[in-house]
Amino acid sequence: MKIRNRGEIEKSELNMTSMIDIVFLLLVFFVMTFKIVELEGDFSVRMPLGESSGVIDPTDLPLKLRLQADADGRLASMSLNEISLGTDFEQLQANVISLIGTSAPVEGDEGPEIEIDSDYNLRYENVIDAITAVSGRKDGNQVVKLIEKIKFAKPRR
Q1: How confident is residue 87, by pLDDT bands cut at 50, 70 and 90?
Q2: How far apart are the C-alpha atoms of 67 and 79, rounded to whole Å?
Q3: Which of 29-43, 61-75, 78-92 has the lowest mean pLDDT?
Q4: Where is the protein situated, by its record's location annotation (predicted)?
Q5: Of 12, 43, 96, 126, whose CB neighbour count within 10 A is largest?
Q6: Model confidence at 27, in pLDDT bands (50, 70, 90)?
Q7: pLDDT higher at 20 or 109
């Protein structure tokens, strides 16, 4: 049997350019969305010492600063560990200094911590003034750090 049209057999090639583009796009996508997860169980827990004398150091616990607002959002009163301070931020700073002192924390000790609990309608500038008062002060050209760990409670309505 004779085959009449014996032309060249056409070779079909697959265009790999679009496949390589897709592979690189997927690679870039997964690299950009990769999140590094912290190791579990890496907690810094301070356990109490056995047979303590029963006296609690106020700097062991987080200090609690309560900021109360009036109806217009102005600062009505402050209290540090349930001690009323009025509305004077300098008095707040003096009380913080009397509680924790001005010495730098010992290495390994994270230093004191404060929790700021404010009313929902309190003006933001009052919260910033409170943070400024508890975080440090300027002594000439030198900055004296007081409390570096500041956390916030949920605002009260």
Answers
A1: confident
A2: 7
A3: 29-43
A4: Cell membrane
A5: 96
A6: very high
A7: 20
Rounded to whole angstroms, how far apart are CA atoms 58 and 100?
A: 8
* Beta-ladder partners of 80: 65, 83
Instruction: Name the nearest CA neighbour of 68 among 119, 108, 13.
Output: 119
DSSP H helical ranges for the chain: 17-32, 89-100, 124-135
For residue 14 the two structure tokens come to: 């697959």
pLDDT for 32: 92
- Asked if residue 74 lies in contact with residue 127, where contact means CB atoms within 8 angstroms, the answer is no
143 within domain boundaries = yes
CATH of the domain at 121: 3.30.420
Residues paired with residue 83 on neighbouring β-strands, in sequence order: 80
Give 86-93's long-range contacts (Cβ < 8 A, gap of 24+): 89/129, 89/130, 89/132, 89/133, 90/133, 92/65, 92/130, 92/133, 92/134, 93/133, 93/134, 93/137, 93/146
Q: Are 109 and 72 in contact (CB under 8 A)?
A: no
How confident is the model over 114-133, as a mean pLDDT? 87
> Does the residue 137 lie in any domain?
yes
pTM given for the model = 0.57
Q: Is residue 56 part of a domain?
A: no
